[in-house]
Write a structure and sequence with these properties.
This protein is of the alpha+beta class. The chain has five helices and seven strands; from the N terminus they run E-H-H-H-E-E-E-H-E-H-E-E. The protein has a seven-stranded mixed β-sheet. Strand 2 and strand 3 form a beta hairpin. It is globular. GO terms for molecular function: acyltransferase activity, transferring groups other than amino-acyl groups.
């Protein structure tokens, strides 16, 4: 993990992120649509909420992972939702762990969030194991949650509560 740099996402990172999120395995693990253009990603990034945190994992100047923490408002100001993806060619090198450490550290030490939540495909055992290592627990199953790769797929709701 020592060769992975975690930092805030910059506008110049969107080309690498477009490549990352067009990888077959990376897109399979998210709710994103495949074949999204750089221009569409730029528009989406520009329209984002100012309270959101966007991190990237970088190896040798290339963005190989992406994660976000979206904070809720009003009566859910104590909570946030996370999502992440890692480039297919770099899976298993520690980028997911480094990104999770960055998100959880920011949530705990700077944002004072009590609850972090996420949804993960029920058949993505590698991601579930990562989230469990960071204290996330399964809270429920969403059956036929979304259409993915030609079939409906189930999703597991997970959350981490900070004492």
């Amino acid at each position: 993990m020592s060769d992975i740099l975690i930092r805030a996402r910059e506008p110049a990172d969107l080309a690498d992120m477009t490549e990352l999120l067009n990888q077959p395995r990376a897109i399979w693990g998210t709710l994103q649509m495949p074949f999204v253009s750089l221009e569409a990603r730029q528009k989406r990034a520009a329209a984002g909420s100012p309270g959101d945190l966007h991190l990237v994992a970088v190896i040798d100047g290339k963005v190989i992972g992406s994660a976000s923490l979206n904070r809720f408002e009003n009566r859910r100001v104590h909570a946030g939702s996370i999502g992440m993806a890692v480039h297919d060619a770099y899976a298993g090198r520690g980028a997911g762990t480094a990104l999770m450490a960055g998100l959880v550290g920011q949530a705990d030490n700077w944002l004072n969030l009590k609850r972090l939540e996420l949804n993960v495909w029920s058949d993505n055992s590698r991601a579930i194991a990562l989230y469990e290592r960071f204290g996330f627990e399964r809270e429920g199953l969403f059956r036929n949650y979304a259409w993915r790769d030609g079939a409906y797929a189930d999703s597991v709701a997970m959350a981490r509560l900070r004492p």
